[in-house]
Amino acid sequence: MSAYPKTLQMMKRGRAFLGSEYAILCGAMSWVSERNLVSAISNAGGFGVIACGAMTPDLLDAEIAATKALTAKPFGVNLITMHPMLFDLIAVCARHGVGHVVLAGGIPPKGSVEAIKAAGAKVIVFAPTLALAKKLLRGGGDALVIEGMEAGGHIGPVATSVLAQEFLPELAEEHLVFVAGGIGRGEAIAGYLEMGAVGVQLGTRFACATESIAHPDFKKAFFRANARDAVASTQLDPRLPVIPVRALKNKGTEEFAAKQREVALLLDQGSVDMGEAQLRIEHFWAGALRRAVIDGDVENGSLMAGQSVGMVTREEPVAEIIGSLMAESEAALSRR
Ligand SMILES: Cc1cc2nc3c(=O)[nH]c(=O)nc-3n(C[C@H](O)[C@H](O)[C@H](O)COP(=O)(O)O)c2cc1C
Question: Is 279 exposed, middle or buried (0-12, 13-18, 19+ CB in 10 A)?
């Protein structure tokens, strides 16, 4: 008899879809969600997702192979829709028989969902509005993640609590919906499951797990931070619609303002088009995040973190984090 019967029952559809013991995804985090963290999450009964980010097909190929060597459990791959080699990356996932591909960062380009499904994999999509969610689910998306602005990394403008009220009553019966953004404890998981979610996705809570390769100084910055330190970037130029990023305040967040001014100037001069301008902004983030996660430059790098960072106070093995989340959810449901 499991220690979490009520939670597992409410996660039943999500668990069947993912093929994991618990319907808890660790959302892809560029540089952080690599073989070690992904395999640890899946080995602990959750569902790990490799962050492909700006990787080339060869690098992704190596990362998937290395992850497979560390776990026999299912895991997914997160691909950014604007990656110039998206279809080659899809082919790499297909060759490895990856069971779940998460498409992040925008509306999936024509043919991408079909290409993933042709290889027998399931497609997980993000949607910032209900109308787009319905369209993507009609167009072949097998499951949906709704992610609120409390989350770390790139964010939309609406809070998780509001998205959950808008999406779940409409979609939860017929579709598989996972909730992400601002989840730090199991009581919140219980609440979203009761609203109809089949599972949840967390990032910030797992970023500093023992198995995470993030630099010790990156982890220390998380342990010290409070919710209010994880702030969203602001858009400086109305013509340059940069997607806001939530990260811990530091010199790097200020440098982002300078980067925006620089790219806006290039737009003015007509030396780049809008697509190229946005790509440059994304490259800035990828580079800055690498500096913080890998090099430990917590001053100039990007410390992407969600508001739940205040609940991350020490390094814990993934299995303990998942165990606490499940126990808190179960206790909450049992008190009802
Ligand atoms: C350091 C960091 C990097 C992230 N990188 C990515 C990414 O590359 N692709 C993506 O789809 N989401 C990314 N995210 C979002 C997470 O996958 C996840 O959805 C989010 O962290 C959930 O909200 P939470 O931080 O409140 O738990 C990132 C989040 C963090 C904290």
Answer: middle
